[in-house]
Amino acid sequence: GQQVMQIPQYQHVQEGEDFTTYCNSSTTLSNIQWYKQRPGGHPVFLIQLVKSGEVKKQKRLTFQFGEAKKNSSLHITATQTTDVGTYFCAGRWSGGSNYKLTFGKGTLLTVNP
Amino acid sequence: GAGVSQSPSNKVTEKGKDVELRCDPISGHTALYWYRQSLGQGLEFLIYFQGNSAPDKSGLPSDRFSAERTGGSVSTLTIQRTQQEDSAVYLCASSSSRGGTEAFFGQGTRLTVV
């Protein structure tokens, strides 16, 4: 079945450093979503990207969707301790049950104050 | 309700027993997902319901796992003859349409098989 590969699996940064996580699909995505899961919590939706080359920003977070709609990234500028958690991408492909959300394995971000 | 509700929040069961986990999605949401998350791991897809379509059961790990969705609303995930490797958090999510909206997650059911 369809998969999204997400790297890195873990990232530890000093507070104030930047952070990036990447997702890749071998086939063209219909759209991609990003979620954040705080320790002990459940995933919470951050954003959805639909268009080729799309870039969206939420304060210190920048989300990109590749031109070929096969890859995406989440970049956090100047991390804070509140950014700690696991960041997941979730992809959808066109057609049939491909509409189901398929999650990457996530990137666990820890921030040293 | 205001959000996705799952019950019980915690379940401890003996190996070999059957368990039922319940999910109440957001009213009107046609899509419902079950995922499994082991400690420190990612979200493992189990099953996907969309409206009146046949569910996508491709993620169910064995025939001990089954799920139903009655009347397009409440869903139950049943695990028969539980094994210790079934211990995990089972997350339910719903979304309002087929292809393009966010999924809202419940708080999950933490299942421990002893």
Sequence-ordered SSE layout with sheet pairings:
The complex is a heterodimer of chains A (113) and B (114).
Chain A: E1 5-7, E2 10-14, E3 19-24, E4 31-37, E5 44-49, E6 55-58, E7 61-65, E8 71-76, E9 85-92, E10 102-103, E11 107-112
Chain B: E1 5-7, E2 10-13, E3 19-24, E4 31-37, E5 44-50, E6 65-69, E7 75-79, E8 88-95, E9 104-105, E10 109-113
Parallel strand pairs in B: 2-10
Antiparallel strand pairs in B: 1-3, 3-7, 4-5, 4-8, 6-7, 8-9, 8-10
Features:
heterodimer, A: 113 residues, mainly beta, Immunoglobulin-like, 5-stranded antiparallel sheet, 11 strands, globular, B: 114 residues, 6-stranded mixed sheet, 4-stranded antiparallel sheet, 0% helix, 46% strand
What does this entry look like structurally?
The complex is a heterodimer of chains A (113) and B (114). With 113 residues, chain A is an all-beta fold. Chain A has a single domain, classed as Immunoglobulin-like (Sandwich), CATH 2.60.40.10. Chain A has no helices and eleven strands. In chain A, strands 2, 4, 5, 9, 10 and 11 form a six-stranded mixed beta sheet that branches. In chain A, strand 7 and strand 8 form a beta hairpin. The mean pLDDT of chain A is 94. Chain B has 114 residues and is mainly beta. Chain B has one domain: Sandwich (Immunoglobulin-like), CATH 2.60.40.10. In chain B, 0% of the residues lie in helices and 46% in strands. Chain B contains no helices and ten strands. In chain B, the strands form two sheets. In chain B, strands 2, 4, 5, 8, 9 and 10 form a six-stranded mixed beta sheet that branches. In chain B, a hairpin with an 8-residue loop joins strand 8 and strand 9. The N and C termini of chain B lie far apart (33 Å). The chains are: A mainly beta (113), B mainly beta (114). Chains A and B meet through strand 5, strand 9 and strand 10 of A and strand 4, strand 5, strand 8 and strand 9 of B.
